[in-house]
Specification:
Layout lengths: L1 H26 L11 H16 L4 H8 L6 H8 L2 H4 L2 H8 L2 H13 L1 H11 L3 H12 L8 E2 H11 L3 H16 L9 E2 L12 H7 L15 H14 L9 E5 L14 E2 H6 L3 E2 L7 H4 L2 E5 L8 E4 L1 H9 L3 H14 L18 H13 L13 H13 L10 H17 L9 H5 L10 H13 L13 H13 L10 H12 L1
Helix pairs in contact: 2-3, 4-10, 6-17, 7-9, 8-9, 8-13, 9-13, 9-17, 10-11, 11-12, 16-17, 18-20, 22-24
Length: 505
């Protein structure tokens, strides 16, 4: 019994040891950073530094990496205008899968064929896929990285939309520097803080970067063996399946039900029963017949149709964008000597601008189709809302947004407003009897920004269209009351500034 008690006491002492060691670190005086000129950023940085020290990061590294930082508005803008979400799909793919890049990729594959083959053999990931990701991320290691990772990550953490995520990246970057994994020169990054030729976020580097040649360093900046192996290891750990295809281009029966796209996985036999055939008329491969696939219409009913296999989804783990994964797959096919898509892109349909997507999202949500946050980015929730609207209106439910569709959504919204009073659940009763609001004292662009901020804060100002009406005024009233401001319901610069501060947290 005494021995057991001794073991318990010893165990308690061991468990207490880390806390005893951590005590002095928490008792240290806060790091005194020079002002950035932005009080909100300075407050966030001080708090983050304290949390980093509490989690065991060295004071010297925290002070060195965070000193002298200022938030970079261009980084926030880049985050909100990612080409994966705002450019027409055919523009994105055409730029990514250019003839110049294909030619260069074939040359690089030939120059380093033995290394690519060895990496493919070890990890089971197709060498052409590795080369295609290398091309997409940094144009085979030649693309300049214009930002500093500490500033980029700090800016996006402070901005607040994904604060916890970017604070995690920044903590990992501090660890990388503290452990000597990255020199000061190697902290050049993309606007998102991604590092090296494969564009790894710092936490990914710590867990998945590979030391191909066994020299004790995972050099994703200069060593091609480490670069290729790191990309392959990432895909292998995320579910890449050796020897399986990525996609097949297909043609659809004239009577095809487009609502089947982007929904459930089906076997090849089930797709064939719905009239789906390979576009070249050949039979599906025996390997493909063992898999389940999803039908993807990247440009709607009038564009290419693709059956996507599990490896397509694995590429999306690298960058969560359908068009990114499609570009990688098309580059890989081209490096092997294959051709591009057979079906043409329906460029005559045009595409919506970011502001038009904002309007579409707000209008769909107002009519009961949940398009997700009104952020101007056409993601999966907005696509599902578009498809639901199309189904309700008896239109081909391909989920693709066009100017014609936006016109139809507007018309339906006007019909609903004129024929029936809005449900009380959507528009407060007080709004119906509210007096006409005063004209805004800020520009339409700033009204639109205010509407977006209010929506992010959980209020319903209606579409983010820059038009100031009763619904936006009521949302401002609710916001003002929630933060203890005098309730006016007016769109003014002080209200916009208050909303900006509230979003930043």
């Amino acid at each position: 019994m005494r021995r057991a008690f001794q073991w318990i006491v010893a165990g308690m002492a061991l468990c207490a040891a880390p806390f005893a060691l951590a005590g002095p670190a928490r008792a240290q005086s806060p790091i005194a950073f020079a002002s950035s000129g932005d009080p909100g950023f300075d407050a966030w940085r001080a708090g983050f530094a304290e949390r980093a020290l509490a989690q065991g990061r060295g004071r010297a590294v925290v002070e060195r990496l965070l000193s002298g930082l200022t938030p970079d508005p261009s980084i926030v803008e880049a985050d909100r205008r990612q080409p994966e979400f705002v450019s027409p799909v055919w523009d994105y793919v055409t730029r990514a899968v250019s003839q110049a890049r294909i030619t260069q990729g074939r040359a690089r594959r030939g120059e380093e064929g033995a290394l690519f083959a060895a990496v493919e053999d070890r990890y089971g990931v197709d060498a052409d896929i590795i080369a295609a990701i290398w091309a997409m991320e940094t144009n085979f290691g030649t693309f300049p990285l214009p930002h500093r990772a500490p500033r980029a990550l700090a800016t996006l953490a402070y901005e607040g939309r994904r604060r916890a995520q970017f604070e995690t990246y920044l903590l990992a970057l501090l660890e990388m520097v503290e452990r000597g994994y990255a020199s000061d020169r190697e902290l050049q990054s993309s606007w998102a803080g991604a590092l090296g030729q494969p564009q790894f976020m710092p936490d990914v580097y710590l867990t998945l970067a590979a030391d191909w040649d066994g020299d004790g360093r995972r050099d994703i900046w200069n060593n091609h063996g480490d670069v290729f192996a790191s990309v392959a290891n990432y895909l292998a750990q995320r579910g890449w399946r050796r020897g399986e295809p990525v996609f097949d281009e297909v043609r659809l029966a004239p009577s095809f039900n487009y609502a089947l796209a982007d929904t459930n996985l089906r076997t090849i036999a089930e797709w064939e029963a719905h009239g789906v055939r390979r576009i070249d008329g050949a039979a599906f491969s025996e390997t493909a017949r063992t898999l389940s696939a999803q039908l993807f219409l990247p440009a709607g009913a009038q564009g290419p149709a693709l059956l996507l296999y599990p490896n397509f989804q694995t590429i999306k783990r690298y960058n969560n964008s359908d068009r990114y994964a499609l570009s990688v797959a098309l580059l890989a096919r081209a490096f092997e000597g294959g051709g591009g898509l057979v079906a043409s892109w329906p460029t005559h349909l045009g595409s919506l601008s970011r502001d038009q997507i904002f309007e579409l999202q707000g209008a769909l949500t107002a009519q009961g189709y949940n398009a997700g946050a009104a952020d101007g980015q056409f993601g999966s929730m907005t696509r599902a809302a578009v498809r639901a609207f199309q189904q309700a209106q008896g239109l081909p439910a391909d989920g693709y947004p066009t100017t014609t569709l936006l016109t139809q959504v507007r018309a339906r919204a006007n019909q609903t407003t004129q024929s029936t009073p809005p449900p009380a659940a959507n528009i407060p009763a007080a709004e119906a009897s509210a007096p006409a609001p005063r004209a805004p004292t800020i520009s339409a662009a700033r009204v639109r920004e205010l509407q977006r901020l209010l929506r992010r804060l959980g209020f319903n100002p209606g579409p983010a269209d820059g038009a100031f009406g009763v619904r936006t005024s009521e949302a401002i009233r609710q916001f003002e009351a929630s933060v203890g401001r005098r309730v006016t319901g007016e769109a003014t610069q002080p209200v916009l500034n208050a909303a900006r501060r509230a979003v930043r947290g």
